[in-house]
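Hi P.,

Sorry for the delay on this. The queue was packed all week, but I finally got your sequence through. Input first:
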Amino acid sequence: MKVILQKDVPGQGKKGELVNVSDGYARNYLFPRNLASKATTGAVHTYELEMRAKADKKSYEREKAMQAAERLKTCTVKIHAKAGPSGRLYGAVTGQEIVNALKEQFGLEVDKHKLVQDEHIKTYGIHPVKVKLGGAINAVVQVEVREEESK
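Then the structure:
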């Protein structure tokens, strides 16, 4: 009997998959526990439409991430900060500061949790910061920390 799984079932498949199981297993275990529904013609058609829509959405999000990665590669974000006489910043440049500068200078919206900093930025200069955009798509944005001008 063909069924569509409503939840993950160990040994059978993941939620939303169309699987072939024995009649007794479906009637006595899957259906009473609401783990699966019978794969009628209408249900199979709905399943196929959902899978197609999910694939289209994934493709769209991947394309959008690729475009964002291309834009980020060309960006050099400039951040002004104060430092002591030794050249070390009084504090570190935070992910939120980088995100705000990206939005202000280039109009790009990036979640601060997608930034990956190997080490805290505590000195002047240009520092690479990795941005995870989803899936296997990553970009590196250059962050230039400059001395804050005195007024």
